[in-house]
Design a protein that fits this description.
heterodimer, A: about 475 residues, alpha+beta, Cytochrome-c3 Hydrogenase, chain B, four-stranded mixed β-sheet, about 20% strand, B: about 180 residues, alpha/beta, Rossmann fold, five-stranded parallel β-sheet, binds iron/sulfur cluster
C-alpha cells in the first residue's frame, strides 16, 4: 500500500470489460479528497504492428477487442482505404454500416443486460454473490432471456455477414469481401420484429425504473463537459462515417465538420502516471479543461435529429431530461437503449433498399498514400486508427485513440463525485463501493480496447490510516 | 447433487473467448442450474475461491500480475482449461515479444502523447514481463481448446463433457486461428 493519508482500493472493478482498479483517498476527517480510476494492462498494438503488411491491419486490430472487433475492423479498414486512396463502392459502405450497427446492438445489449442489469434490477445494495446475470436469470428470467436474445440478434447478423461472430474477416481494405445475398437479407429482416419487441419492452420498463435512481442520477458524473460524436449531413448520429461535432454543456455546437485527417489538431493525449490509459483532451481548451465525453450519451447530445419514428420519439423524451445537454452519466444506460432501438429501425430501413444486394462491393488498388486515418463510431464512442507505411506497404507506425480513452477524464471525475457522495467516514460498506464502481459501468468502458488490454484481479478493499494501520477491510464474496 | 463450480479468467487476451462463452446464448439458461459461476469478470466475487472444479483461462501470461494470478489459480483449480489461442500459444499478445518492453512503453507514452509525454505509468500499474507466454509454460494445463476464439459450440461441448464427468476429446472439433 502506498503511503497516503488513507486510501481505499477497489480492485478489480467488476462487471466491466477489462482490468481496472479504483483508489479513493480520504483525509483525516474521513472525507473523500481524491479518487482515481487506474487501468492496469497494456498490450502494445501500436508498437508490434510495425513491420506487418498494411492489409493485415483489420484482422490484427480486431484482436484488440472481442467485444467490439467489428469497430476495429471498420476503423482499420477505413484507414487502409485512405492508404489506397480509393473511393469504395457505395454498397460496400452500406454493408459496413449494417455490420457496425449489428455490433452496436450486441455490445449495448451486453453492457445493459449482462453487466449492468444486476445493479438496476436487483439493486445496488443486493447480495454481491447473486448480483450478476445468473442472479437476474433466476429472479427475472424473462428479462434475462430478452438480453440473451437481443445480444444474439446482433451477433447472428455479424455471423451471417462475416462468417463468424467474433473476429470475422469480411471487412477488407477497399470494401467488403462478398456481396449480400437475397436469402441472407431476408433472413436478417425476419429477425427484426422480435428484436424491436424486446427493446420496446425494455425501454418501457427502464423509463419507469429510473425513478428510483434519483440519487445516482444526481451524483454519477453529473457535471458539465464537452460532448463529441460523428454526425451525418442531416445532423443524425453517424456510426460509420460523418464528421466530428463538438458540443458544450449548454448544447452549443462549438466545432463541427472535423475530418478524420485533422483529428490531431483537436485531440491531444495526456499521460496519467497512475494508469496505462492516457487522457485525451480537446486541444483548444487544453488539459484538463478540455474534458469531454463520447459514446451513447454524447452521440444523443450532439445530434439534431434521429430519422426513424420510434427512436425519434424516445430521443425527444431523452433530450428533455436536460435543459441543454443531458449531463448525468447515469443516462448512458438510457441512451444505450435508445441507440439499440435506432439501430434496429435503421437496419430495417437499409436492408429494405434494393441496392443493398448490389454485387460491386470492393475496390482494388495498391497503396497510393503513406499515411491514413480511419474514424468511426464504436459502441463506446468515436474510434481512431492512424497508420503510416513505407514503399513496401509495411506499417512503420500506428496511433490508436479508443472510445473508452476519450472518457478517461470524465470517468475519473465521475468516480470522485460519487465517492464524495457515497463514501463517508471510517467504515467501508460494500454497497457504497458498488455505487462507485457503477459509475464506471455507466460508461461501459472497454479496457481491452482502451489500452489494447484486458483482464481482471481479485477485490480487496482496505481503509488505511496515515500511519499505515488498517482501519477497516473487506473482501467481496 | 451440488453444482459444479466454474471460474473464468482474463489474462492478456481480447475477451473474445469470453464473448464466445456468452455466444452459447440460450444454452446458458440450460447450464445455469448445473453450474455455479464462482469467479469471473461477469460476477462480483473479487477473491478467487479456495477450490474450483473447472477454470477456463483466456489470454497469455504477460505481466507480473498475470504470473502471480495463474499460479494461485492453478493451486486452487481441479481442471484447468486453456481457452483459445492466446492461452494455448500466446498468439497475438506474443507479437510484442520481438520488441523491447521499453520501446512498447515509449511508443504509447512518449511518441504518441502530447502532454506529460515521456512519463511512464508506474506504481499503480503492473510490470510487463519481457515476453508474453502461453499458460502451460508457467503451470500445468489439463485441457487445451484452440481457436481465436473457439466456437461457442466447442465451448459448450467442453463444458457438457466435463459436467458428465468425461474428458472432452478435442480431435477435429476446433483448430488454431481464424
Ligand atoms: S484467442 Fe483470439 S478471441 Fe481469444 S483472447 Fe486471444 S485474440 Fe481474443
Amino acid at each position: 500500500m502506498k503511503v497516503m493519508p488513507k486510501q481505499i482500493v477497489i480492485d478489480p472493478v467488476t462487471r466491466i470489460e477489462g482490468h481496472g482498479r479504483i483508489t479513493i483517498q480520504l483525509g483525516d476527517d474521513g472525507v473523500v479528497q481524491d479518487a482515481h480510476f487506474h487501468v492496469t494492462q497494456l498490450r502494445g498494438f501500436e508498437k508490434f504492428c510495425e513491420g506487418r503488411p498494411f492489409e493485415e491491419m483489420p484482422s490484427l486490430m480486431a484482436r484488440i477487442c472481442g467485444i467490439c472487433p467489428v469497430s476495429h475492423l471498420i476503423a482499420a479498414a477505413k484507414a487502409c482505404d485512405a492508404l489506397l486512396a480509393v473511393r469504395i463502392p457505395p454498397t460496400a459502405i452500406q454493408l459496413r454500416r449494417i455490420i457496425n450497427m449489428a455490433q452496436i446492438v450486441q455490445s449495448h445489449a451486453l453492457s445493459f443486460f449482462h453487466l449492468s442489469s444486476p445493479d438496476l434490477l436487483l439493486g445496488m445494495d443486493f447480495d454481491p454473490v447473486q448480483r450478476n446475470i445468473f442472479g437476474v436469470l433466476q429472479r427475472y428470467p424473462d428479462l434475462a432471456r430478452d438480453g440473451i436474445r437481443l445480444r444474439r440478434f446482433g451477433q447472428q447478423i455479424i455471423e451471417w455477414l462475416g462468417g463468424k461472430r467474433i473476429h470475422p474477416s469480411w471487412v477488407v481494405p477497399g470494401g467488403v469481401n462478398e456481396p449480400l445475398t437475397e436469402q441472407r437479407r431476408n433472413q436478417i429482416l425476419a429477425t427484426i420484429p422480435e428484436a424491436l419487441e424486446i427493446i420496446v419492452r425494455t425501454l418501457d420498463w427502464f423509463r419507469t425504473a429510473m425513478g428510483i435512481f434519483q440519487e445516482e442520477i444526481a451524483t454519477f458524473a453529473n457535471f458539465p463537459t464537452l460532448y463529441m460524436g460523428l454526425v451525418n449531413e442531416d445532423g443524425e448520429p453517424d456510426y460509420y462515417d460523418g464528421r466530428l461535432r463538438v458540443v458544450d454543456s449548454a448544447g452549443n455546437v462549438i466545432n463541427d465538420g472535423i475530418e478524420a485527417a485533422e483529428y490531431h489538431d483537436y485531440i491531444g493525449e495526456y499521460v496519467e502516471p497512475h494508469s496505462f490509459l492516457k487522457s485525451p483532451f480537446y486541444i483548444p481548451l487544453g488539459y484538463p479543461e478540455g474534458i469531454y465525453r463520447v459514446g451513447p450519451l454524447a452521440r444523443l447530445n450532439v445530434a439534431d435529429r434521429l430519422n426513424e419514428p420510434k427512436a425519434y420519439e424516445e430521443w425527444s423524451a431523452f433530450r428533455e431530461l436536460g435543459r441543454r445537454a443531458v449531463q448525468s452519466s447515469f443516462y448512458y444506460h438510457y441512451a444505450r437503449l435508445i441507440e439499440i432501438l435506432f439501430c434496429i429501425e435503421r437496419l430495417r430501413t437499409r436492408l429494405s433498399r434494393p441496392d443493398i444486394l448490389n454485387k460491386h462491393v470492393r475496390a482494388y488498388a495498391e497503396p497510393n498514400s503513406f499515411e491514413g486515418v480511419g474514424m468511426s463510431e464504436a459502441p463506446r464512442g468515436m474510434l481512431l486508427h492512424h497508420y503510416k507505411i513505407d514503399e513496401q506497404g509495411l506499417v512503420t507506425w500506428a496511433n490508436l485513440i479508443i472510445a473508452t480513452g476519450h472518457n478517461n477524464l470524465a470517468m475519473n471525475r465521475g468516480v470522485l463525485q460519487a465517492a464524495k457522495h457515497f463514501v463517508k467516514g471510517n467504515k467501508i460498506e460494500e454497497p457504497m463501493l458498488n455505487r462507485v464502481e457503477a459509475v464506471i459501468r455507466c460508461y461501459d468502458p472497454c479496457l481491452s480496447c482502451s489500452t489494447h488490454a484486458i483482464g481482471k484481479m481479485p477485490l480487496h478493499v482496505q481503509l488505511v490510516s496515515a500511519d499505515g494501520g488498517i482501519l477497516d477491510e473487506i473482501k467481496r464474496g | 447433487m451440488s453444482k459444479v463450480t466454474i471460474a473464468t479468467v482474463w489474462l492478456d487476451g481480447c475477451s473474445g473467448c469470453h464473448m464466445s462463452f456468452l455466444d452459447q446464448d440460450e444454452r446458458l439458461i440450460d447450464l445455469a442450474p448445473l453450474i455455479e459461476l464462482v469467479y469471473s469478470p461477469l460476477v462480483d466475487n473479487k477473491e478467487f475461491p479456495e477450490m474450483v472444479d473447472v477454470t477456463l483461462v483466456e489470454g497469455a501470461v504477460s505481466s507480473d500480475e498475470d504470473l502471480h494470478k495463474i499460479r494461485k489459480i492453478r493451486a486452487r483449480t481441479k481442471i484447468l482449461v486453456s481457452l483459445g489461442d492466446c492461452a494455448v500459444t500466446a498468439n497475438v499478445p506474443s507479437m510484442r515479444n520481438s520488441f523491447k518492453v521499453a520501446d512498447i512503453l515509449k511508443r504509447a507514452y512518449e511518441e504518441n502523447a502530447d502532454l506529460n509525454a515521456g512519463t511512464m505509468p508506474s506504481g499503480q500499474v503492473p510490470t510487463l514481463l519481457k515476453h508474453a507466454r502461453p499458460v502451460h509454460e508457467i503451470v500445468n494445463v489439463d485441457i487445451f481448446v484452440p481457436g481465436c476464439p473457439p466456437h461457442a459450440d466447442t465451448i459448450n461441448y467442453v463444458l457438457t463433457e466435463l459436467l458428465a464427468g468425461r474428458k472432452p476429446d478435442m480431435t477435429g472439433r476446433t483448430r488454431f486461428g481464424i
